[in-house]
NADH-quinone oxidoreductase (Tumebacillus flagellatus), 185 residues
Amino acid sequence: MSEETKAPETKAPEATKAPEAEAAPEPVDPRIEQATERLEFLRGKVVAKFGEDVLEAAELKQFQPTITIKNQHWVEVVEFFKTEATLGFVYPELMAGTDYKDYIEVYVLLHSFTLDYDVSLKTRTPRENASIPSITPLFAGFNWEEREIFDLLGVNFPGHPDMRRIMLEDHWVGHPLRKDYVVEN
């Protein structure tokens, strides 16, 4: 077809553009909302009683309020969680230790029947001369856990009523859960 025989181009009327629909906000997971409220409540209680200086961190870990306490304030803050009437974290669920190469962290999980939920409390110690004050006087059930952490990670717990090896023989050298542990043949 030659240019002379082409039909004239007509412009289609512009369709009225619909306003772009705003993307609906993603729904907030109710578990995150609830855990965040719990974390802020607990953090507020600690700060009101002791000030910000006792905390290293307050965060959620898998929907769990997790509060990291400076080592020198460990006993007093754990005792507060247990004895404060509005908190009542009286049930010790577990205690464990982990070597992170730069420091060793001790973790406890406590349950409150008053609030009907758990809190994770952590503290840290340098690897050299690792030491964390014992909370066995507050929770006798953590006696063996502190001894196990002492035995396997080398963390001393001043104030523990019977700090000695629990799993390894007395003549054992080193702490096998340390990242730098070397098995000697």
In short: The chain has a mean pLDDT of 90. The first strand starts at residue 55 and ends at 61. The chain is about 25% helix and 25% strand.
